[in-house]
Design brief:
- It is a single chain.
- Helix content is about 65%, strand content about 0%.
- It has 14 helices and no strands.
- The longest helix is centred in the C-terminal third of the chain and has 22 residues.
- The two termini are about 50 Å apart.
- About 5% of the residues have low confidence.
Amino acid sequence: MSTNMQSMALSVPQTGSLETYIQAVNSINMLSAEEERQLAERLYNEGDLEAARRLIMSHLRFVVHVAKSYAGYGLPQADLIQEGNIGLMKAVKRFDPNVGVRLVSFAVHWIKAEIHEFVLRNWRIVKVATTKAQRKLFFNLRKAKKRLGWFTHEEVQQVADELGVSTKEVLQMEARMSSQDQSFDLSADDDETGNFAPVQYLEDKSADVESEVLDANWEDNASQRLYSAIKTLDERSQHIIQCRWLADDKATLQDLADQYQVSAERVRQIEKNAMKKLQAAMA
């Protein structure tokens, strides 16, 4: 892409009012189908940069619209728009008016492609997706997650069926997306507080830092899910599970039978039903 084409789009402010930029691009008149065709032919046949400028400027509002759909990734909106503008300029450069489609239909692929690359570069210190299939799964899985929290077994199966992948691939990608960034080195304060960082594993050739971090995140999420699942049980079932499985000094069935004045077999049944409910909630 030439320097001239790169300078044609309005510069997206990194600081200041992004709203001012958005208002500015929304105030630019849209082109009719005939105007667009004439400008595209001038660019395609004659290399007319003024025609390219008008095509780009009239479609900046569409880039803003596309970029807003990626707000959930926690990245600066101005950066998303800027990357989308690069995709728009690439599309304008490659647009062939003889194909018979509107520029917006052709450009959406290039705009999204640039934004996708930017999201993947910045989503995690370690990339969550390295192959084309994984990238497709990453973005489709983000759309499929309608709520916070981990997928249930039924939701995993549904997403796998809809996207044509295995449940294992869905679970692996969900774990990558849910993991937290880990600082590589310790700060001056951390060095005296007993905290750890991946840099401390460098001398141990057998250590797998990525696996350690993923496992820790998985355990944290599992603990949260277990706690939430226990809260769904009735008070007596909660107490029996706590005494039988979570307490340091675990109670026997007879201890609880005496406490609730029921048979040990009845306590065993309550425990069994409670465990089934927990397993279903954790699946």
